[in-house]
Design a protein that fits this description.
This protein is an alpha/beta fold. 40% of the residues lie in helices and 17% in strands. Strands 4-3-2-1-5-6-7 form a seven-stranded parallel sheet.
Length: 191
């Protein structure tokens, strides 16, 4: 496999305080669509989720939302997606999102974004999948996360090789190119 077909994008259902976050989500959505890379995300219509989906759809891209059934009746679910999948639980949702994608990108977000990102990195470490992960580092948003991982390495709780568990960039094309460079050969999911 030498290209990305779909990318899971983890991001906030809020916009955050810096307008650059929304601009980055919009830029990423448009860039993925322009490069014919589908978006898999949490299915929301608000915050960075909504900006990402709206931009990708406006540029003619494929956007797949994945929601757990307990969220099905919420007004914040995006109603204009290419596909909306409903899972039985949050655990199934996260597994489905990774199963549908060849890569992961994390935009700024809160605890849900962190949970999804750390789980994707953990699954890579455990060999459960081989999907490259990227941090869209808007105005240094991800630096504190990188600092925590470095602290874990320094304290002996994480191998130094985990520094290479993800790529990081502040430009969507650079980030996508970097993810493409680290794509493993063969299927994304390890049996």
């Amino acid at each position: 496999m030498d290209c990305l077909r779909r990318v899971v994008v983890y991001c906030g259902s809020r916009e955050g305080v810096d307008p650059a976050y929304r601009m980055a989500a919009t830029a990423l959505g448009g860039t993925l669509a322009r490069r014919r890379i589908g978006v898999v995300y949490g299915g929301g219509s608000t915050g960075l989720m909504g900006a990402l989906a709206d931009a990708a759809l406006a540029a003619g891209g494929e956007v797949v939302g994945v929601i757990p059934e307990f969220m099905g009746g919420r007004r914040s679910i995006h109603r204009g997606l290419t596909h909306l999948r409903v899972s039985r639980s949050m655990h199934e949702r996260k597994a489905t999102m990774l199963d549908l994608a060849d890569g992961v990108i994390a935009l700024p977000g809160g605890i849900g974004t962190l949970d999804e990102l750390v789980e994707a990195l953990t699954w890579t470490q455990l060999g459960l999948h081989r999907i490259p992960c990227g941090l869209f580092d808007v105005n240094g948003f991800w630096q504190p996360f990188v600092d925590v991982l470095e602290h874990c390495i320094q304290e002996g709780f994480l191998d130094a090789a985990r520094r290479d568990a993800f790529v990081r960039a502040s430009d969507p094309d650079v980030l996508i190119d970097a993810l493409t460079q680290v794509l493993p050969p063969g299927p994304s999911v390890v049996a």
